[in-house]
Amino acid sequence: MKIEQIYTGCLAQGAYYVTSNGEAAIIDPLRETKPYLDRLAQDGVALKYIFETHFHADFVSGHLDLSKKTGAPIVYGATANPEFEAIVAEDNQIFELGSVKIKVLHTPGHTMESTCFLLLDENGKETALFSGDTLFLGDVGRPDLAQKAANMTQEELAGLLYESLYNKILPLPDEVTVYPAHGAGSACGKNMMKETVDSLGNQKKMNYALNQPNKEAFIKAVTEGLLPPPAYFGMNVAMNKKGYSNFDEVLNQGMNPLTADELETTAENTGALILDTRSNQDFAKGFIPQSINIGLNGDFAPWVGTLIVDVNQPILLVTDRDKEEEAVTRLSRVGFDNVLGYLSGGFETWEKSGKDIDSINRISAEEFANEVRIGENQVIDVRKESEYAAEHIEDAFSKPLAYINDWINGIDPKQHFYLHCAGGYRSMIAASILQARGYRNFTEVAGGFNAIAKTNVPKTNFVCQSKVFN
């Protein structure tokens, strides 16, 4: 028997590959199937089952394409109602995989169909728990995402989650290994650990949600401090439940090389958004007017989903050379399948065409320290609320990037302001959006708060971020 975690940092997502005696199962696969198919061929095993812990909200799973290419059935837990052929398993149903068994534990609460899969080894010993979004390390699944679909309040769903955890998960042996669907950085929880694997015994000791005195206290604890979920979540749930375009077709369409003239014409004719995935340093120096910067070297896909929202939005790509396929693939993971092509040769092609080029007014942290007048100048901090609460520039305004579509209209275009995040990635995203919408009276600070903190700019007293919600 072999268990392998396939972790994708950009999405803070864990898929799992389990083999035993020539048979394999894959749990919560990502959109692109080639890595799994290659692994199966390399190991000389046949895929017997594709297990889905629930209808995911933060990414599009690869279950449909993987099933079509291998013939392996898709398995959901009780109450799931996918609009494609699948096995909807009963609670406690057993699936045999080589010489091991996988037991279905229906654990509603995060969503109604949420299910954990318990691995029993060759001797029938309870060995590993693939806990999906029911149990994370340090946290549990948020109970507010499925309210509309379940016609329940988040408190009612939290009550179901309590029953699932305390009646089905906590009684399991301490030595059971917990393999969650997500880790720190995912919007599916609020207090996840950076580790991606742990023992259930350790979680029983340190996970706040598993140490509540009663159901009422649990409901209060898990519903406090929840931030609004990214707006694209509902669209990803629909795709996972109803179906989606074949990934190979999505990739083929996106890998369409365009000249500068062709890209410009396509943007005008289709209303496509020009998405520049280069580093914030390169983008600041020059970019296609009206384009938006979300760098590949960061939490690219989640930010695309959070800020662009509509998965049907036509997109044209500007990338570093040989990064086009990676960009199309990572967009598809969150359901953005309508990539119409990319600028062949990268931004250099646009420069050589003689077309208009825009840039961002960016200064160093040292220049900012010399220029800014605290109490007189306006400073906008686009980091998360928890980062701002821990420490920030005196008199700075907290305007998290995730909510820019809400606060942007409150900006006075006549009043100059400074803009920063932690290191420059998020503030450049904000700067590109602001400039695309006609706001130009601002200065963005390179290096963000990490660099500013090394200057003499007045700051608030530091508070450890473990003491504020993430």
Automatic annotation (TrEMBL):
- Metal-binding keyword on record: yes
Q: Which UniProt keywords apply?
A: Metal-binding
Chain ranges of the Rhodanese domain: 268-359, 373-461
Q: What's a Gene Ontology MF term here?
A: metal ion binding
Q: Name one GO biological process term.
A: hydrogen sulfide metabolic process
Q: Which CDD domains match?
A: POD-like_MBL-fold, RHOD
Q: What is this protein called?
A: Rhodanese domain protein
Highest lineage ranks of the organism? Bacteria, Pseudomonadati, Bacteroidota, Flavobacteriia, Flavobacteriales
